[in-house]
Automatic annotation (TrEMBL):
Keyword Transmembrane carried by entry: yes
InterPro entries recorded: Thioredoxin-like_fold (IPR012336), Thioredoxin-like_sf (IPR036249)
Superkingdom assignment: Bacteria
Protein name per the record: Thioredoxin-like fold domain-containing protein
SUPFAM superfamilies from the UniProt entry: Thioredoxin-like
Presence of keyword Membrane: yes
Annotated keywords: Membrane, Transmembrane, Transmembrane helix
Transmembrane spans: 6-25
Record lineage: Bacteria, Pseudomonadati, Pseudomonadota, Alphaproteobacteria, Rhodospirillales
Record Gene3D superfamilies: Glutaredoxin
Species, as recorded: Thalassospira xianhensis MCCC 1A02616
Thioredoxin-like fold domain ranges (all copies): 44-200
């Protein structure tokens, strides 16, 4: 009986701790935080819009993150379209891998030519089952680029660069979770719809 009571107490304590953690995480993600000026985009990042755009949105993603995949499906397309068609917005998708598989995915994107990187990113985020197929990265690229990408991924330079960037984002800018959205130097909610981001930016909804 004593053992049963101890087990019950431990379970209740675990539930309480988890609840407090969830509340704390939700609160921290929902409260804007000053990040400041971020470093220039890196090779594995994807950029749309003019450098001197009025508003800048930086989105930190880990390729295996389900919420990042949802963000890519529901929000990024509209943001990218707006960045391409106006001088008001610059969007930077920054790789922030949180595990070994997402690190390989970020390395793969960094090894991709600029003109096909966004297409590769979108394709992977819409078909997340492919992200776990680490050994098939070169095959996911256009045929004419596969050999160069395979060579790039065999070397450590790109992978080391992604790791270094991730550590910088964590230590200097406090980017701990994905997705993290930074709007004009301030964090926005972890998942934000196009409508919510338009309101944050003070831009009309389309």
């Amino acid at each position: 009986m004593i053992l049963d009571r101890l087990t019950t107490i431990l379970v209740v304590m675990a539930v309480i701790v988890m609840t407090l953690l969830i509340i704390g995480i939700s609160h921290s993600q929902g409260t804007p935080r000053v990040v400041g000026d971020l470093p220039p985009p890196q090779r594995s990042d994807i950029v749309f819009g003019a450098p001197d755009a009025m508003h800048k949105v930086d989105i930190f993603v880990s390729m295996t993150c389900p919420h990042c995949q949802r963000l890519a499906r529901e929000t990024l397309g509209k943001l990218v379209t707006r960045a391409k068609t106006s001088n008001e917005l610059r969007v930077t998708i920054r790789q922030h891998p949180l595990n070994a598989v997402s690190l390989e995915a970020a390395t793969f994107l960094g090894c991709m030519p600029d003109e096909v990187r966004h297409e590769a990113f979108t394709g992977l985020m819409q078909r997340p089952h492919l992200i776990s197929a680490v050994t098939n990265w070169p095959k996911l690229a256009p045929a004419e680029h596969q050999a160069a990408i395979a060579v790039c991924m065999e070397k450590d330079a790109m992978r080391d660069s992604v790791v270094s960037n991730t550590l910088t984002y964590r230590k200097q800018y406090g980017i701990q979770v994905t997705p993290t959205i930074v709007v004009d130097g301030f964090t926005a909610p972890g998942f934000a719809s196009p409508h919510e981001l338009s309101e944050i930016l003070g831009m009309p909804n389309e």
